[in-house]
Amino acid sequence: RLSVNQDEADRTSERIKFVFEKKVADGEVISGSCPLGYMIEGKKLVLDPEMSHIAKAAFDVYIKARSRMAVVRHIRNVYGYEINYNTVYSMLSNTMYYGSYRGNNKYCEPLISKTQFDKAQDIMKKNYIKRTPSGRIYLFSGLLKCGTCGRALSGTFSKNPRDPEGGYYYYRCGSAVRNLDCDNRKRVP
Q1: Which of 113, 122, 137, 139 is CA-nearest to residue 62?
Q2: Do residues 102 and 49 touch, judged by C-beta distance below 8 A?
Q3: Which pLDDT belongs to residue 63?
Q4: Could you tell me which of 12, 67, 113, 155 has the fewest CB atoms within 10 Å of its CB?
């Protein structure tokens, strides 16, 4: 009886998957939410005439200033629209802005060109700084290499038992610590 139920659940799942694939191929919206600058009209995603200029400005400002915070400030100061720093990241990463979604390159009307989107992606990759749970930024993570195995060194912290407020910040070979497949146990301050 359990295998019959499992089989029915698998078939239902496959049917739903095919329905969604068909809707995306036809350019139909499969959820009720849409990115800033778009609206749903007749099951399709269309440009919102009142908000699309704000979304377009986000890309233009980011490519020029190379800063998400500059986008947040610009949109707040020029348009009076409050936008979150993380929302800007989501916008800049959303392929719908150049008309593509789940492999359908004609899913909706593009707000920007694919070239503009790719330029924003390149800038985001160059601007990426990994943050740690402590909030400390290790600027040289990924740049410093282990002299033994050649892998990237990662930043870390250990507390100083004699000074509860302070500690030691250093870089080390993650392979030596996690995987134990490197002999380099040295720490670089």
Answers
A1: 122
A2: no
A3: 96
A4: 12
Q: Which residues of 14-31 are buried (b: 16+ CB within 10 A; e: fewer)?
A: eeeeeeeeeebeebebee
Contacts for 107-116: CB closer than 8 Å, 24+ residues apart:
107/24, 107/27, 107/45, 108/27, 108/38, 108/44, 108/45, 108/46, 109/45, 109/46, 109/47, 111/37, 111/38, 111/47, 111/52, 111/55, 111/56, 111/59, 112/56, 112/59, 116/59, 116/63
Quote the pTM value: 0.63
Q: Which residue has the tokens 């800038």?
A: 123
In which region does residue 29 sit, left (phi positive, over 0), alpha (psi from -120 to 50) or beta (all else)? beta
pLDDT recorded at residue 134: 64
